[in-house]
Amino acid sequence: MDEPVLCRRIPTPPWGDVADRHIVTIDEYIKTGGYAALEQALSMDPADVISVVRDSELRGRGGAGFPCGVKWGFLPDPDGGQRYLAVNCDEAEPGTFKDRLLIDYDPHLVLEGIAIACWACRLDTAYFFIRGEYRSQAGVVEAAIQEAYDHGIFGPQGLLKGKVDLKVDCFLHRSAGAYICGEETGLIEAIEGKRAWPRVKPPFPAVEGIFRRPTIVNNVETLAAVPDIVTRGADWYKTMGCASSIGKPGSYGSKLMGVSGHVTRPGVYECDLGISVRDLVEQYCGGMRGGKAYKACIPGGVSMGVLGPDQYEAELDFDIGARYDLMGLGTACPIICDEDTDMVSVARNIARFFRNESCGQCTPCREGSEWLYQLLRRIEVGDGRSRDLDMTLEIAGSMGVIPGTTICGLADGNNWAVRTIVNKFRDEFEARVKPSIVPVTVGATK
Ligand SMILES: Cc1cc2nc3c(=O)[nH]c(=O)nc-3n(C[C@H](O)[C@H](O)[C@H](O)COP(=O)(O)O)c2cc1C
Ligand code: SF4
User: What is 1-53 written as a DSSP string?
Assistant: First the structure.
């Protein structure tokens, strides 16, 4: 892999301490070229803005990697009724803390992306849906939204002081604080004031979303990429990242990678997509903590599965799933594990998370997540039998949208996390279980 074009560390404050951060104000943002992209977008036909984003092959940064311009193109034509943008800043995926950094330091970059998306897609109402625990960040976003209203970016006069007649309102909506609130249809239910129970799809949100009206759901980081794509163009964007070895779309642009675990300098790094785990750890994170050896990497939130000891060279791009037996790249926020990590405990801990976060609507997820947790706990404490390993794989493999048994992808996350850890670290699990008791029929002869 070539030397990355771009990789810089975003200063990460110690957990919970954001007192010394510098939040870019709207005046500072405008002074350094902020909202010029919105101005440019508003001078273009909305369909042309969608074309630029589609040509850039920008893929969603929320976990699924769906091409942003293609999603925008799914909207039906305006019919005079309301149309919504849901900005996904729920960020409850374990190990993921990249969106928080964007709104902590540069909230207007995201707001500019929101305004451009609203123009391109002819959306009149944006809900900024923020994780419940992000109390301080909610204050930052609220203040930035107010600044944007005061400068005529949002409000009744039309976008950017009435430059066009599309009036956009932007509201902050604080999440109740559950992982499932980040799933796009759970999020829509939550915005409607209901329990965040995911909906059966189709219909997809672009056709029937908030209050059953057309809705685009985009991640904060996806929207933050849009202003630069508009001003610098799709070709510029594609100078970063890499093409796909499988087919279109590629893995273009930079990506915020929040690295945690056993590295010397954890933090959020902005890197070209395609950087290898080894380069990220050794060139940017100061290497493995305490000089220990690398053992495993959970590359994109726990839902995607795990890379094994022989997969340190894995490139962090959207093809990673097909190449290394993972569900996908996910949020590209790697958790790095060193040689001392007990992978049985890791699997049990992750299974506990999914057990606690299942919304309970689908039986395979509600019951299966409890079974998985109990089996892995039994193995961890040394009470497991070898047949428990196969049972674990069978239960995990039967849960999710991909096997067709659940409404949403939370169960697939549980499935991939548990299966890949057991498969890639099978020896560790085998060493912990007792042989299964083979039933013997008394008096049986051969
Ligand atoms: C259980 C679950 C939790 C999710 N949590 C988030 C989240 O916190 N933030 C996010 O942007 N996407 C999350 N997603 C993905 C969203 O459903 C959706 O794909 C995404 O917000 C679309 O935006 P994008 O195309 O810009 O990535 C989650 C998905 C699932 C299945
Ligand atoms: S898969 Fe799990 S979290 Fe998703 S809707 Fe079904 S029960 Fe709820």
Answer: -PPPS-EEEE-PPSTT--TT--PPPHHHHHHTTTTHHHHHHHTS-HHHHHHHH
